[in-house]
Specification:
hydrolase; 8-stranded antiparallel beta sheet; single chain; endo-1,3(4)-beta-glucanase activity; 9-stranded antiparallel beta sheet; transmembrane helix; 30% helix; Endo-beta-glucanase; disordered N terminus; 17% strand; 39 strands
């Protein structure tokens, strides 16, 4: 999310693309795409290979061993031909024996490991695993334990297909405007095969491979059309058609980690003209067409000649060729290309070397091994059948190998080539050469099985222990049959088979994955060590959190008086009039409406608590605390509820001034966009600026931040449903429409992509959408906490509607709502797990447990990209902003979100950075929340009481209220040994205009925003009057926006006034344009 006081930071646009070509990219069907009628058993058993190598060739327990005699070409001793292997024979023998011992021990430990699977290595401090804790005073840490089922067989509904939340058409059934967006930001014709194949109108907009979907019809791929599959970065920008495979390595500073690549070292696996020059120059179009897109993979075609599926976690890159395609007769041949010279002669099938100058054409039965100068890289290339290769490898020129067409290809229409880098080992304690040989042998042993284009992610649930099973189906295919020829045959999942693919698992997978993890075969990734896993299917068991409107315990009786006083004031909170009419952005409007929803919930909880106390149903402390307590009156509560109902209805019924419209091009709900002036929108549908202005509404029209924005609105709607079941039934489909936009679980819903923002492999979501220009680091997400809230909202709405429909006797809808609750819980749990791994960076742990390299010294990630992590935000670099954006909003799920050990670690840098701007802009609310989390509840209560009331109108505090802040702090559990000292406590000072502020001792010299406000003139005192400065500019006054830029971003008064009055809000604030301009 790119925030600058409500304005999306504008990006520099590249030249717009011309009119889309009418050219079709569908091409002919790839021969044999349908499942072959070949005998499944033959495909399942595969060729009779003895992959039980000699000691130097592979690990026996990792082999794919058959009792049949192996072909002579593979049975040959590899050591006789490879000098490198002879040198390390003894080292390998020792290493293998150690590995066998370690694996046996690890397996025993794995089988006997405890069932509790916390997001941390173990639940720390006084966290408890019991989920049955009743709410009470004080209490312990909320019970969010990730419990692994004892047996996978208790998931009786494994094969149940999750139904859609709804199949109503947004336009035809729900009266939403439809909209045809400009061609310049619509899907190109290269996506036509995907649309036609799936027979639906929706395309992913926030996927990990989004940059690959952005290739224009008449455009050649660039290096920005790329993906990070782990461990490779892949693009299609090589010298000819195909996939370019980049090795990656981590580079770190104190505030950044990136996966760097070296372009000259890449392998391009594709097709080009015969290098012999015997054919006229003919080239395949480098541009690809997209034929399949799942959450785990993306399938690309180059006409009908070759195709590849780019799959997350694959140690290989696989290309499948149609060797009877006309392109072959025109001299287009499968090609492997490196720009580097080899450092030694290539090794063929592990038993001989070849000199390309003296033997330019030779036969390879199975694999080719190459090592290169400068890069130190070692590559293995595997072939599905014996092939004849032509090579070109002269000093100073690129290294090129091409597959020649054989004389008799009647049975060999397909050829599969797989390329793999022998990666670097993650553990520096391992011997490099020993690791390389072990890893290379594992690549050889597993090269036969590769993931197909129909990878899927499925879910099933067990209600007895509140857990979910998340399954990755890798769609295994075999590239060999018993006769050694390719069939591209899908393997059967059921039944016994020794053929198992290997894939890389991220650290959070390894916490919950039930499978054969190979802990000695790990390498680097952006997110820490990734280790190989054997298996055609991954099963991961995730404990689900308890999602509710209240915390695990009631507010402490001691703080009920101050909480009640805040409620009496906050219950009268007035949502800004422009948000009540739907004139404004979807982000701040959602935060504001959800703010009132939280106030109502807390008022209900406290009133119920005190009523119970007066009736003798509570403990003596609550009875005493509630005695004589003034609480919000029924009339005030009713007025607040009516206001909530009005605001929520305006937005979900899309009868707002900036209504939601349905995007026919990509398939999604877009806020039309508000050209705001004088408290109203001056435009109406079909004049929707959101589709052309990336800077409007944080880029909502380009699918940025949908889960953040809509999550707040759904949360407010869930609360309203909690209070008003009749409204809930009447508007169920309206709210569900927002849920479907980012949390649709089913392909049967033809109106929205499945899980728009969620990346199931990485576990978290992506906030960026169709940004232009594309980012080199691909997709990103800033606020992990708001992503968690978005899924918490889905779970709450599903839970609330389940009860309402059950009471109404509508069991069918109750069943759907119950599934929405479960899906919401699963989305929430996985988002929390990845957040705690990849955003909440603990430094006070052993180096082996750290996510990032030692050089990265901060304790949080501000923005996480696919190949980059950085300590910053879109709206400023102050540490309190970077920590703060990961700590809002404060809802019951926040307790499960913020690990106590991490909270203890961030408290000091967070408080040290919290200056006057931090306080006045509302960011100190999060500081106090962390203080309470680590045990300083009393001090945090005092801190909240000192937050200036104006702070709740600013960017850091406008989603909070005093009531919600006090409620959150007062419901924190009792913690032994609180992690703060008296020197770090807040003090109160008064600035020149008498406002009370809280700052730290070492920040007495900072400027407080109200000081600036007194003298603000924008160097144009004749025109820039207080009336102009106080004019509303999309929810904030001109004065507030200018002060924000000065305090938070460090801009001068001149620059701040210029940005707001001249560049951003000339209609509202233009008279404050500096006169020097």
């Amino acid at each position: 999310m790119q925030r600058i006081m409500g304005v999306y930071a504008k990006l520099t646009n590249e030249p717009t693309l011309g009119e889309l070509s009418s050219r079709s990219f569908s091409g002919k069907a790839f021969e044999g795409d349908a499942l072959s009628s070949e005998n499944f058993e033959e495909a399942q058993q595969g060729i009779a290979l003895t992959l039980n190598y000699s000691i130097e060739e592979g690990l026996e327990d990792h082999s794919l061993q058959k009792n049949k005699k192996s072909p002579g070409w593979f049975h040959c001793s590899r050591s006789s031909a490879n000098p490198r292997k002879r040198k390390i024979l003894v080292a390998v023998l020792i290493g293998v024996l150690l590995v066998l011992s370690i694996c046996a021990t690890a397996l025993a430990n794995f089988k006997g490991r405890p069932s509790s699977m916390s997001t941390a290595d173990e639940i720390e401090d006084n966290e408890v695993s019991s989920r049955s804790q009743s709410r009470g005073e004080g209490g312990e840490v909320a019970s969010f334990s990730f419990v692994q089922p004892q047996s996978k067989y208790i998931f009786a509904n494994d094969d149940v297909v999750i139904p859609p939340f709804s199949t109503l058409d947004p336009v035809e059934d729900l009266d939403i405007y439809d909209y045809d967006r400009p061609l310049s930001s619509s899907p190109s014709a290269r996506l036509d095969p995907l649309i036609n194949r799936q027979n639906k109108r929706v395309i992913p907009t926030n996927a990990w491979y989004q940059n690959m979907l952005r290739l224009g019809a008449d455009e050649e791929p660039t290096k920005h059309h790329r993906v990070y599959t782990v461990p490779y970065v892949l693009d299609a920008a090589g010298d000819f058609a195909g996939i370019r495979i980049h090795a990656t390595r981590p580079e770190a500073t104190a505030t950044q980690v990136r996966m760097a690549t070296d372009e000259p070292y890449a392998l391009t696996l594709g097709a080009m003209t015969d290098i012999s020059g015997d054919f006229p120059v003919s080239k395949l179009d480098k541009g690809y067409s997209v034929h399949e897109a799942t959450n785990l993979g993306l399938t690309l075609h180059w006409d009908s000649y070759m195709k590849t599926t780019l799959v997350r976690g694959s140690p290989y890159v696989t290309m499948i060729y149609n060797m009877i395609d006309p392109a072959v007769t025109e001299g287009i041949l499968p090609t492997m290309h490196w720009r580097l010279d080899t450092s030694e002669l290539p090794i063929v099938d592990g038993n001989r070397t070849v000199d390309c100058e003296s033997e330019p054409v030779f036969t390879v039965e199975r694999d080719l091994e190459l090592a290169f100068l400068n890069s130190g890289q070692r590559w293995l290339v595997f072939f599905s059948r014996p092939v004849q290769l032509k090579c070109k490898n002269t000093r100073g020129s690129p290294t090129i190998f091409q597959v020649l067409k054989g004389q008799d290809q009647s049975d060999d229409s397909k050829l599969v080539i797989r390329g793999a880098l022998v990666v670097s080992n993650f553990s520096p304690a391992d011997e490099v050469e020993v690791f390389s040989e072990m890893y290379a042998n594992q690549l050889r042993a597993s090269a036969d099985v590769y993931p197909g284009q129909s990878t899927t992610v499925t879910h099933s649930f067990n209600e007895e222990n509140s857990s979910a099973k998340i399954t990755f189906h890798w769609d295994p295919h075999s590239m060999r049959t018993a006769n050694g020829y390719i069939v591209d045959q899908k393997l059967m999942i059921s039944g016994s088979t020794d053929k198992k693919m290997i894939m890389f698992a991220l650290p959070h997978h390894q916490e919950i994955l039930v499978g054969n993890i190979l802990p000695t075969l790990c390498t680097f990734s952006l997110l820490g060590p990734v280790c190989l896993v054997e298996g055609n299917v991954w099963e991961m068991y995730e404990g689900l959190p308890a999602v509710d409107y209240q915390a695990a315990r009631h507010p402490h009786p001691k703080y009920l008086p101050v909480l009640a006083q805040a409620l009496v004031e906050d219950i009268r909170y007035q949502i800004p009039s422009n948000f009540l009419s739907g004139a404004g952005d979807t982000y701040f409007s959602g935060k504001t409406i959800a703010k009132l929803a939280r106030i109502l919930l807390i008022a209900e909880e406290v009133k119920d608590l005190c009523e119970s106390a007066s009736a003798g149903g509570s403990n003596s402390e609550h009875v005493e605390a509630c005695d004589g307590l003034e609480l919000p009156g029924d009339e005030d509560v009713e007025d607040a509820l009516n206001q909530l109902r009005e605001a929520v209805t305006v937005w979900v019924k899309t009868n707002s001034e900036t209504p939601f419209v349905y995007d026919n091009a990509w398939g999604g709900l877009i806020s039309c966009g508000c050209l705001y002036q004088g408290g109203k929108c001056t435009n109406q549908v079909p004049d929707c600026p959101a589709f052309t202005d990336q800077g409007l509404n944080f880029g909502n029209g380009f699918y940025n931040d949908h889960h953040f924005h809509y999550g707040y609105h759904i949360y407010a709607a869930a609360v309203l449903a909690h209070f008003d079941s009749s409204w809930a039934i009447d508007h169920y489909e309206d709210v569900t429409l927002l849920v479907r936009d980012y949390a649709n679980p089913s392909e049967e819903d033809k109106s929205f992509p499945v899980f728009r923002n969620k990346d199931w492999y990485r576990g978290h979501s992506w906030a960026s959408g169709l940004t232009e220009p594309m980012f080199g680091n691909i997709m990103n997400q800033e606020s992990s906490s708001e992503a968690i809230m978005a899924y918490e909202a889905v779970a709450l709405f599903g839970k609330t509607m389940t009860a309402i429909f059950q009471d109404a006797g509508d069991l069918d809808k109750a069943s759907v709502a119950k599934m929405m609750h479960k899906i919401g819980l699963t989305l929430t749990a996985t988002e929390i797990r990845s957040t705690q791994r990849y955003w909440q960076i603990q430094q006070n742990v052993d180096s082996s447990e750290k996510t990032f390299p030692e050089l990265y010294t901060t304790s949080v990630v501000g923005i996480l990209w696919e190949t980059f992590a950085e300590f910053t935000t879109w709206f400023g670099n102050a540490p309190y902003l970077i920590y703060g954006i990961q700590l809002l909003p404060l809802t019951p799920i926040s307790e499960a979100r913020d690990k106590i050990q991490w909270a203890k670690e961030i408290y000091q840098p967070l408080t040290e950075s919290c200056n006057g701007a931090c306080v006045s802009e509302g960011w100190s609310i999060q500081v106090n929340a962390i203080l309470a989390t680590i045990g300083g509840v009393q001090e945090a209560i005092e801190g909240i009481l000192r937050v200036p009331s104006t702070a709740y109108k600013h960017a850091g505090g406008n989603g909070h209220s005093k009531s919600n802040s006090l409620w959150y702090v007062s419901t924190r559990p009792t913690i032994d040994n609180p992690s703060f000292t008296s020197e770090e406590k807040f003090e109160v000072i008064f600035d020149q205009i008498g406002e009370e502020h809280e700052i730290l001792d070492n920040y007495n010299d900072v400027n407080i925003s109200e000081d600036i406000a007194v003298e603000l003139s924008c160097f144009n005192p004749m025109k820039c009057s207080n009336e102009v400065l106080d004019s509303d500019a999309e929810g904030y006054s001109c004065r507030q926006r200018i002060i924000y830029l000065m305090n938070v971003l460090g801009k001068s008064e001149l620059d701040g006034c210029r940005q707001v009055a001249v560049n951003e809000y000339p209609a509202e604030c233009g008279l404050c344009g500096p006169s020097t301009l």
